[in-house]
Amino acid sequence: MRSLPVSPAKNPHPARVSTPHARPRRKARRFEEFEARRLLAVINHAGEISIDETWSGADVHVLTGDVTVKAGATLTLQPGAVVKGSHFTHDLIVDGALDARGTVAAPIVFTSIHDDTAGGDTNNNAAATLPAPFSWGGIVLRGAGNVLEHTEVRYGSSG
Ligand SMILES: [Ca+2]
Known about the structure:
Bound molecules: calcium ion
Largest sheet: 8 strands, parallel
Number of strands: 12
Number of domains: 1
Distance between the termini: 15 Å
Number of helices: 1
Structural class: mainly beta
């Protein structure tokens, strides 16, 4: 599915879209060192979410296919949650609501499976593969009531 950029007019709390290099250098290094120390469990996700679900901030959440939050359901991401897409066709599609309220200390990061700087070396290949734009699909927000705060989206097809 083709991803569309989140429209600022429809999203009062747009995600801050950046690459690691867009950060001030020192801040980026601190963040990467912090991330490298974190030992996170990996949880795979694919398919439909039709009742409310919460993804832990203590885990890396890998999209192994499209994940669709159905109308009426809310997917809540805890601060510190890292969501990694593993293929350019894999989107997080939200017909219900996405509640992603990170904090300054524990932002929520959407990125590629190849990005080891968030949540560690999830694909267990050290730096053999590197993330690039279009490494995964993106976030498709089609419902109302989405909240994204202190959330970064890296290397998707839409940001
Ligand atoms: Ca890796």
